[in-house]
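Methods, example record. To illustrate the input and output format used throughout this study, we show the complete record for Diadenosine tetraphosphate (Ap4A) HIT family hydrolase. The sequence lines were provided to the predictor; the line carrying structure tokens was produced by it.
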Amino acid sequence: MSSVFTKIISGELPGRFIYRDDTVVAFLSIEPVAYGHTLIVPVKEIDKWTDIDPELWAQMNEVAQQVGRAVIEAFGSERAGYLLAGFEVPHAHIHVFPANDMSGYNLATAMRPDETDPAAMDEAAERLRELLDVDADGRPNP
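The corresponding predicted structure is encoded as:
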């Protein structure tokens, strides 16, 4: 059975993409610790980050760094938080989010989908896409 991330990647479920290539995607979390909270996910469904091939892992982290720099600039945070958890969805992913303290590292405090403002989520995605110079689907602009 496909993971929820595979369904987002394939378009079966909606997602606010801010980066996409043939092997890695990045889209906003529907349960953010802060607006701009992004998940970096391999296209290939791999459950544990420890099972990811080193080349793909390096690419995921390169994307995480790019997203992290954009998150800092877009939201004026001191840092970009980076978190690996892996219990929420059985599809490896990196959490990157605006961070001014350690509060974002507690995913139990994340907003639920019905607590987020859809307009604020759309604005966060657009700000990040603009900084990453990608189109509405996360693909690099020509």
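Annotations derived from this record:
The chain has one domain: 4-126.
The mean pLDDT is 96.
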